[in-house]
Amino acid sequence: MIRATFRLLVNLLILTLLPATLVLAAPVVHLDPATPILGNPLSIIITLDNEETGLAGLPDLGSFEPLAPPLHLGQEIRLVVLPMRPGAREIPPFPLQVGTARQIETAPLAVTVLEGIADDAAIAPFKRRPFPLVGSGPGGWILAGALLLILFGAGIALLWRCWHRPDFFKLPQAVQLAHLEARARHLPASAACTSLLDEIRKRRFAPLASNSDDIHRLHCQLLSLIAAGDE
User: Fold this and answer.
1) Which of 104, 140, 132, 111 is nearest to 43 (CA)?
2) Does residue 92 have a cis peptide bond before it, meaning omega lies within 30 degrees of 0?
3) Positive or negative CA dihedral for 211, 212, 217, 219?
4) Gap between the Cα atoms of 81 and 29, Å rounded
5) What is the pLDDT of residue 179?
6) How far apart are CA 77 and CA 29, in angstroms?
7) CB 229 within 8 A of CB 187
8) How far is CA 228 from CA 119, 180, 199, in A?
9) Ranges of the chain whose pLDDT falls below 70
10) pTM
11) Separation between Cα atoms, residue 45 and residue 91, nearest integer Å
12) With 0-12 CB in 10 A as exposed, 13-18 as middle and 19+ as buried, what is 167?
């Protein structure tokens, strides 16, 4: 009778402690690599007791961005994530379904995400790019040659324009007077400048005959005023 009573008490004790034992035996969570680095993918690995235990849902991982759905392989669940912020972080508990009637969760995991920069790192010195500007292959020389051709063509065009610029005194008289007035309007205000402008405008718009000597005289007066202004 005493032995039966003792055996009954032992069985009751086992049944009472069994749920607590199952809760304490939470699946193990570890990282691969063990030290997270900012911007480098890592795997959260949950080691299971059996293949029937599965992930019941995905918690809010905060600064760890999932890169792919969780992968359940045998007695292991893998989730690839990307650390988005450095410093002290926490991997939250993962809910797990054991069979059809019981749900457990993993313990939270405290981690430190490194920035991945060495303590003795320094800014690299500036290095000038050698000529040609683009690469070091034939493409760079082609670009340099095209640039030289463009500059050469622009120089030829400028020389051609200067060489073939019409002589002032060969232009029509109306054009000559218009050019003289345009240049005289930019001179500093003075009595001589006002007198010159009045005569030029009279010869442009009044029925006053002008000859080459008149145009030459006005031109000389303008050049004199320009020279006096430069002084």
Assistant:
1) 111
2) no
3) positive
4) 14
5) 84
6) 9
7) yes
8) 69, 17, 20
9) 1-26, 117-141, 159-169, 206-208, 230-231
10) 0.43
11) 11
12) exposed
Look up residue 20 and give its two tokens: 């607590």
Structure tokens at 52: 């029937």
127: tokens are 């290095």
Task: Annotate the chain with DSSP letters as a single string.
Answer: -HHHHHHHHHHHHHHHHHHHHHHHSPPEEEEESSS-BTTS-EEEEEE-SSTT-EE------TTEEE-S--EEETTEEEEEEEE-S-EEEEEPPPEEEETTTEEEEPPPEEEEEB----TT--PPPP-PPPSSSS-SSHHHHHHHHHHHHHHHHHHHHHHHHHHTPPPGGGS-HHHHHHHHHHHHTTSPP-HHHHHHHHHHHHHHHSS----HHHHHHHHHHHHHHHHHHH-
Name the pairing type of β-strands 76-83 and 71-73.
antiparallel
Q: Are 78 and 69 in contact (CB under 8 A)?
A: no
pLDDT mean across residues, the chain: 78
Q: Identity (one letter) of the amino acid at 77? A: I
Give me the residues paired with residue 95 across strands: 105
The residue whose two tokens read 């795997």 is 43
